[in-house]
Amino acid sequence: MPAHRFDAVVFDLDGTLCDSEPFIAAAAAEALRRRYGISVQTADFAPFVGAGDDRFISGAAAAHGVAADLAIDKPLTYEVYLELIPGALQPIAGVHAFLARLRAAGLALALATGSDRPKLCGNLAALGLAEADFDVVVSAEDVTRKKPDPETFLVAIRRLGLDPTRCLVVEDARNGVLAGRAAGCEVLGITSSQTPDALLDAGARIAVRDYTDLPPELLADLGLA
User: Fold this and answer.
1) Which of 64, 84, 104 is at the close of a domain?
2) Quick one: DSSP state of residue 14?
3) Number of C-beta neighbours around residue 89 at 10 A
4) How many CB atoms lie within 10 A of CB 96?
5) Is residue 196 part of a domain?
6) Which of 7, 35, 11 shows the shortest CA–CA distance to 171?
7) Do 160 and 72 belong together in one domain?
8) CA–CA dist 167, 160 (Å, integer)
9) Is the Cβ–Cβ distance between 123 and 17 less than 8 Å?
10) Is residue 1's pLDDT more than 50?
């Protein structure tokens, strides 16, 4: 038996590698304002964090009585988003060092996001990362059922060729934690967009501020201590 608990780490993207939630909320609000003349507030998006960008946009629109046309509204949201993030999008503290340590320790790395590829590629470029930094990349186009359904994580884990119990999921949203647990994984919660209690109540093993705040027992389970 391996001395460590996990063989892979499966990362969500938004709110987990980068603090993108304020930017996508601002972009979606601007897109909905242009298209429908409605004034959407940040709080309107909160129930849909981690459920994929389709639900993120359409759910907030529905709260204002609008049926979003995602064929138009989502590309417009991404267009605005990609204008907002250059020089502004910040990584979650410690993420680059954490990725390097995981790779050096021989763990597999996967990226499993509910975002479409334009946003995924824009985020990675802004962070100085590339798809090649991960063994597996799964985006919204690769699945039919979004989080809290576990499909996004299960597709990534199947492509890694690993048992879910040997994979640690990293998530920032309740919907993502629920998806990770439903996939059969333990989940590390990052509190960039939701409270520790929200993540713990959904089933996260622990909830921390960022990657500089990881407890020794988790580092040991990853073979990093």
Assistant:
1) 84
2) B
3) 18
4) 16
5) yes
6) 11
7) no
8) 10
9) yes
10) no
Amino acid identity of residue 154, one-letter, is L
Residues 153 and 187 in one domain: yes
Length of the chain measured in residues: 225
Bridge partners of residue 208, in order along the sequence: 190
Give the domain-ending residue among 65, 84, 103. 84
Cα three-residue angle 152-158-162, rounded to 5 degrees: 120
Q: Are 76 and 115 part of one and the same domain? A: no
133 and 72 within one domain: no
pLDDT band at 225 (very low <50, low <70, confident <90, very high): confident
pLDDT band at 125 (very low <50, low <70, confident <90, very high): very high
Q: Is the pLDDT of residue 56 over 90?
A: no
Both tokens of 3, joined, read: 């001395």
Kind plus residue range of the DSSP H or E element containing 176: helix 174-182
Instruction: Report the number of distinct structural domains present in the chain.
Output: 2
Is residue 3 assigned to a domain?
no
Tell me the sheet residues that pair with 111.
Answer: 11, 137
On whether both 204 and 95 belong to a single domain, the answer is yes
Which H or E run contains 111?
strand 108-112
pTM above 0.90, yes or no: no
pLDDT of residue 103: 97
Whole-Å CA distances, 80 to 37, 43, 69, 190, 216: 16, 19, 16, 26, 41
